[in-house]
Write the structure tokens for this entry.
Amino acid sequence: MSTRFRADNIGSLLRPAELLQARADYGEERIDLNELRQIEDRAILAALDMQRTAGSEVFTDGEYRRGMFTADITQAVEGFVRSDRSATANWRGPHRDAALAARRGDRQLVVGGRLHKKGRLLADEAPFLKRHAPGPFKVCVPSLSYWSSRYQPGATDSYYPSRSAMIADLAAILCDEVWLLAQEGASYIQLDAPSYTVHLMDPRGRQELVDAGLDPDEVLDDTIAGDNQLISAIHRRPDVITGVHLCRGNNRSAWAAEGSYEPIAEKLFCALQADNILLEFDSERAGGFEPLRFVPKGKNVVLGLITSKEPQLESEDLLRRRVDEAAKYVPMENLAISTQCGFASTAPGNLIAWDDQRRKLELVARMARKMWG
């Protein structure tokens, strides 16, 4: 499938203060679900208008109905429990303390029972966007690879004899979810897959797997196979674009992984069946473009060259040079541009302002017009 969107849109947007307050009020039972939905609807309509005026080619709801990019899987799937492990990642960068504070006290979800579907994960997103988006719209879904690491000995093995057995049940549930999103009119479904970078690319993450007695290359094979199941389910509707976004962690302008794509590039780029691979290239911590030499002919790469973590705007001349560098490995016709990640993978959002976000989206659209017409 050819690239339809030269100015791609990663997904999450900064939440307005009214929405953050409404979600807190709902959690404290000061407002009911209907009141929360009304406030979400107003915020999404404002976000759609902002994207339209910024020149976006594909629209999202900003993930405004979620507390974080994963949504609440416990509302959709029975069998997840809170463990005694902290959910706090090894955040890095100058805003590390803000990231740690945003997730302090959270406990990691693990599988502690048989997995059964009990509802929808993203029931309200596609129908609302179909009615109100000014153009094609994207829905972002946490990848199977994100949840496949939730096998914990002592909690999970009483219900599943192996990680692969657990993944099989989870895959069936998530395949059903993405197929429903395609039927509901999503133009583009993106799998958010930080596990590839945090656990399989980053040297520290790979060593943690080795220390746990796992072979990172075997885990990579299993991870790709799981996400390909979701992609195959979406591709039952051939008009729906599929993408996989490799995120290095995004919380209060901090990150959780560093390093080149080289350790996973050949296997990942060749085996992953998505139409588009969305990659972070906004800083030196992402390495160079050389791993793109493994991208097969016809597969599209979205270059995340514009950071969503800091307010400063990138130089247009520098962005043009960087796209030209990437085009040494992937033809221009198979390239697009975006921010490196969303603006608010967690509800508090990155440490930038609403106007900074708007200017970043305008820059994405402007560069796409200048580079591809």
Summary: The first strand starts at residue 77 and ends at 86. The chain is about 40% helix and 15% strand. The mean pLDDT is 91. The longest helix spans residues 33-54.
